[in-house]
Amino acid sequence: MPFPAERPRRLRDNPSLRDLLRETRVLPEDLIYPIFIVPGKGVRRPIASLPRQSHLSPDKAAAFAEGFHRDGGRALLLFGIPDHKDELGGSGAEPDGPVQLAIREIKDRVPELLVMTDVCLCEYTSHGHCGVLEGGRVLNDPTLGLLAAQALSHAKAGADLVAPSDMMDGRVGAIREALDQNGFPHIPIMSYSVKYASAFYGPFREAAQSSPKEGDRKGYQMDPANIREAVREAELDLEEGADIIMVKPAGPYLDVVREIRLLTERPLAAYQVSGEYVMLNAAADIRAFDYKAAALESLVCIKRAGADLILTYLVPEFLSW
Ligand code: PBG
Q1: Residue 156 catalytic?
Q2: Ligand 1: which of 117, 165, 171, 276 to mutate, most ligand atoms within 8 Å of CB?
Q3: Residue 223 falls inside a structural domain
Q4: 312 CB under 6 A from ligand 1?
């Protein structure tokens, strides 16, 4: 039906009709908000690399969580910044670590709020790599038990879901086994299955103090040029029992989000990472565009590509809009 019989603009002229025909909507329940937990009490310190984001001690995180939930927030993802690091990142699994304390305090104050945790070694290792380092190489299999121990400690503290972000092979299976054998078969795993070695993590590494002291993460995170490899990574995690698959970063990788959407019926998440958030802010600062409009557009596009869930630093602003 070529023009003039078919006129797509007929359906776009009227704002109410446009609204009726909108295919994709971003809702508060689609969003997960990452926060950074530091040790101590009464700490709320703005993070220089991430506008309007703060380092929070467990008590401040719980106070924040209360307001966040009141405003319609549904889920938090906790990152920990410990006061001591070692070669093996053991502080990540301590029962009184900042993340473990924050989980308890938040769940005490706001039981309905979902508390998810990032499981990784990079914030906890002295060398800043996501696994055991030996002779300049990150060893895969010796890392698995450490990740499983950290995930288990989060579950014991009351986390609703654990999210491994290290990119070691076999870690979803190892964490699943540890959870199942220790009384947590009901705790789901959201796997950072398709995680690229991306420059867009820059502001996060400053926020989490997790930059590798030497080398980079290309030996375990994926090459941005690859998409077939993304399918394989997702397939392996599905086989190992990942309940939710994640693609990260989100905005520059929407083709990958789409590809994984078509691969699985399981829920799919995408992480709009720190660099994406900072780009929105920096561009708005020089008045390249309207911040709110660009931010909302970025989220609707991620969902349109196929993500059910979006991890983003925009959540509090989104709720206020
Ligand atoms: C830890 C981890 C990183 C991010 C989430 N988990 C950093 C990295 O892999 O270097 C990045 C999040 C962001 O940039 O917002 N492995």
Answers
A1: no
A2: 165
A3: yes
A4: no
- Reply yes or no on whether 213 is catalytic: no
The tokens describing 186, both together, are: 């009901």
| Residue 130 near ligand 1, beta carbon < 6 Å | yes
Q: How many domains does the chain have?
A: 1
**Active-site residue (options: 60, 107, 248, 303):** 248
Which pLDDT tens digit goes with each residue over 192-234?
Answer: 999 999 999 999 988 888 889 999 999 999 999 999 999 999 9
Its domain, for residue 67, covers: 24-320
Of 107, 195, 218, 303, which is the active-site residue? 195
Average pLDDT over residues 7-25: 97
- Phi and psi at residue 217, in whole multiples of 5°? -100, 15
- In whole angstroms, give the CA distance from residue 54 to residue 202: 16
Instruction: Show contacts of 17-22: CB within 8 Å, 24+ apart.
Output: none
CATH of the domain at 258: 3.20.20.70
